[in-house]
Amino acid sequence: MSRPAPKRALMLVGATTLVAIALARASAIAQPVGGRLITVRIDSVLAADTKEGTDQRLPDPIKHQLAGLFGYSTYRLVSHQEITTNWGHELDFMLPGGRVLRVAPQSFDGHMVAMVVLLFDGDRPVMSTDFKLENGGDLLLGGHRYANGMLIVTIGVQTQAIPNASEPASAPPVRVPGSSLH
Amino acid sequence: MTQCEQIEPLLTGFVDGELVPPQMQAVARHLAACPKCESVLIEFSAVGERLREVAGEFQLEGFTQSVMAKLPRPTPIRDRLRSFLDLFNERLIAGTALVAATLAIGAWTMILVTPMARVLMARARADKSAVVASAKAEVHGIDNATRVAAVTHRSQAVISRLESQLPNVAVWSEPDTEATVIWVPDRR
Asked: Is some CB atom of chain B closer than 8 A to the CB atom of A134?
């Protein structure tokens, strides 16, 4: 038995609306943000038990996090790298000790930045992860032995509006020079 | 056996009128002709009268009331209910105290004796640093554990996927500093 025509039309409209809402939501989640640049900041910190205290060059939030998370007596900033780019680029950072960190910012939902991060040991990938990071927040990556201690890498992101946002952003990655702090 | 010897056992029954008619007739015919048995009969009758005088009639009037007066009186329902509740309260308090004591003893036994409790307590202590996942060798994906950690503890990062070929990759978050750490140790 076929349903009455008005009821079928109503169901069709409802289903179409639901699909449209789902597509719009998925699009809003996945769409890279135009009109904004992203700065990825990588700080490599040597953590050791040499009782030298905390490097004053480290940002205060990072000092606080390191002190709250680990029990080392020394935190020394070994390198600072920063790249500002637009969305869709893969950014490679050479870490002290030879590992390479590849960061690929994916999207920004107004509050958090979605990104893919790969860690290479030589040519071999040792870790791959997808995560969202608060705009202006940090994620810590550690575990690699370096010098007389442990290397702890902070991955920070900060988005910023492009001054003339009407033009599509197409800036190539800009690396901050002189990042080695030995 | 003489006729008097046959009649004499029947005399008490004759006095009380308990003999069957032929016996009554035989005893009466004999008594009329035998002064000895008649004197015995008179003696029986006199003894019977004296016994009745001594015994008198048993008084049943007021018997029921006197017996009932000596029985314990039924308790009113209100008193019975109150006594039941008192008993219940006593048992409830005693039962509660017993259960509490048992639980306390059980908890102390578990804490002091069982290794599992020590593990649980250690886990609870470690919850602050919230080590939530550790990838095993050839592990692919600790997605759920990581996501739970990042949601449960306020953190700046939400990890949706993590894969590694290394055996001891760990992820944890620290609520106090809102920091999330991925620990990727060197291959040993």
From this structure: yes
**Among B20, B92, B160, B98, CA closest to A133:** B160
CA distance B45 to B14: 10
For residue A140, report the phi and psi dihedrals to the nearest 5 degrees.
Answer: -105, 140
Give the span between the Cα atoms of B169 and A47, in whole angstroms: 18
* Arithmetic mean of pLDDT over chain B: 75
Residue B57: predicted pLDDT: 67
pLDDT of residue B110: 75
| CA-based nearest distance A25→chain B, Å | 18
Inform me whether the C-beta atom of residue A29 falls under 8 Å from chain B C-beta atoms: no
**Cα A133 off chain centre by:** 6
Q: In what order do the strands lie in the sheet with A91-94?
A: A91-94, A99-108, A112-121, A124-134, B157-164
Distance CA A122, CA A106 (A): 24
Partners of A144 in the β-ladder = A151
CA–CA gap between residue A71 and residue A40 (Å, rounded)? 27
How far is it, in rounded angstroms, from Cα A13 to Cα A2?
18
Torsion sign, CA atoms B160, B161, B166, B167: positive
Chain B residues whose beta carbon lies within 8 Å of the beta carbon of residue A124: 165
Closest by alpha carbon to A53, among A70, A69, A75, A71? A75
Q: What is the model's pLDDT at position A47?
A: 93
Q: Summarize pLDDT for B63-121 with one digit per residue, the tens.
A: 888 888 888 887 888 888 898 899 988 889 999 999 999 999 988 887 776 666 655 66
